[in-house]
Amino acid sequence: MRADELENKRLRMFRFANDLLHAQYDSLPDSAKTHELSLTIDATFLAAPSRGMSKAQKERRRDDQTFPLDPDAGWYYREYDQRDSWDGTETHAKKVGYGYEAELAVLVSNDAEHRESVPHIIVGFNFHKPSTEWNFHAREVFDDILAWGHGFGYIIGDQAYLPNANPNMLQNSLRENGAMLSMRYPVKSSVASKGEGTKQAVAHGAFMLEGRWMCPATPMTHRDIMLRYNKAVSNDKKNPKLTKAMREERELSHRQRRYAQLQERAKWELGQKDVKANGNLVMTCPASGSNRHLDCPLKPNEPAPKDGVDLMTVENPPKMPGDICTNKNSVTFEAEHGAKYRQHHRYGTPEWDDMHTYGRQTIESFNRSLKRSDNTLKESTNRRLRGEPSQAFLTILGVVAQNGRNIFNWLEEEYDDNRPAQPPRRRQKRTNHHAPVKRTTTRTKKKPSRDLSAARRARYGLIPA
User: Fold this and answer.
1) pLDDT tens for each residue of 21-57
2) To pair with 414 at 20 to 30 A between CA atoms, which of 31, 49, 104, 112?
3) Is 276 in the same domain as 163?
4) Sign of the torsion formed by the C-alpha atoms of 126, 345, 212 and 178
5) Nearest alpha-carbon partner for 179 in 158, 153, 156
6) Same domain for 62 and 178?
7) 356-376 CB burial, b ≥16 within 10 A, e <16
8) Residues 132 and 7 both lie in one domain
9) Are residues 273 and 359 in the same domain?
10) Is 348 found in the same domain as 328?
11) Peptide linkage before 119 cis (omega within 30 of 0)
């Protein structure tokens, strides 16, 4: 079968699957539906009913030896430390298998404080060989949701998508369509990691730290806040003298200290004056204007701050200042600058904790529910059909069934017509509260090759690396 025929079959399966999911979403009560959807995206592995063969096995294979084979499937290998919450818990995982990956976009509430306002169901689906073009397949899902006529609220992803995607494939497109991105940066292992506590981008004399443009004179004590927090939690985990309760109490203390330090660091952030139609950001120095928080010798003639704010003195201004220090009013940062790492909430703050942890835990919970013993997707022997379209067909049936269960349980336990789903709140505060937002819910438990093909690069206007 020719490549164009295979692609046509894949697209027909994609259309069929997502039309089913769209119909399920349309069946929800009107009070649960909003124009702007908040989504969390991830991929889950599904083993093929056939065996895979390693390179060594192929070399040892006899001519008379037969074996079941699904040529559309591929090898899945992942070894990682999972850290989707800030309670100090890390899970070291190693997964190896032969099969497929299903890309899943789960609906979440636009407000983490009111999680019960929507059912957590899959509204976007794609299917592919493991570890191949997952950013392209995620982009297809998002483009299809836009084609429904929806906009975006929050988009929450694990590191494979955000921040590790090509920004021209995912981040820029999502921001252009109103998405408020939420991502977790890798724990710093080297400067090249662009993770926590590192310079992620540099432009006009400023630098990006954990998704935010910062004054070049930002003290080092403000740069390594997340690193010190992680080290403190890690040391407590390794301390055999601490009980579980003691570790939890100490982690809460570490977190509250982190919140307070991040609030102080916000005073060193560049101010965002405007966002242009092309995505460029108009930024101001934190030591300029009446809203300033800093007193800098490079800006000696600035007006008095509003409301009698106590200014922090910049003790080590840059010796070779850039435009952000020398321009009188503002500097325009091109959309491409730091596009890979910018996100809506300040990283590590209570607002970020609430939304990101909620999104990541929701999709991990859905992935587990898909593979429970009462779901036919758990065992690959229940999916004895070869080829990607056939496996995708059986998988979407399992997804639709799980969606139905989630909708039924939500209607029975959490739905309240007097508390409709709300649009996302886009305005951010300059400062943050130290206490995390508490969840308010009425729920009661019932009994028991990675590169894109040339054609796809051309489709999205990407320049080959």
Assistant:
1) 999 999 999 999 999 999 999 999 988 887 776 667 6
2) 104
3) no
4) positive
5) 153
6) yes
7) bbbbbebbbebbeebbeeebe
8) yes
9) no
10) no
11) no
Whether residue 328 sits in one domain with residue 417:
no
- Dig out the tokens for 401 from the structure: 């069934």
Distance from the Cα of residue 74 to its chain's centroid: 25
Same domain, 348 and 274: no
Geometric angle at alpha carbon 75, from 72 and 77, rounded to 5°: 150
Q: Are 130 and 101 in contact (CB under 8 A)?
A: yes
Q: Is 458 left (phi over 0), alpha (psi -120 to 50) or beta?
A: alpha
Of 282, 307, 333, the one marking the end of a domain is 333
Residue 219: which domain range? Answer: 199-333
DSSP state of 116: G
Place of tokens 């109103």: 178
Containing 57, the helix (H) or strand (E) segment is helix 55-60
Measure the CA–CA gap between 354 and 232, rounded to whole angstroms.
21
Residue 54, Cβ density class (10 Å: 0-12 exposed, 13-18 middle, ≥19 buried): exposed
For 72-131, the pLDDT digits (tens) are 888 888 776 555 544 445 555 677 888 899 999 999 999 999 999 999 999 999 999 998
Residues 104 and 173 in one domain: yes
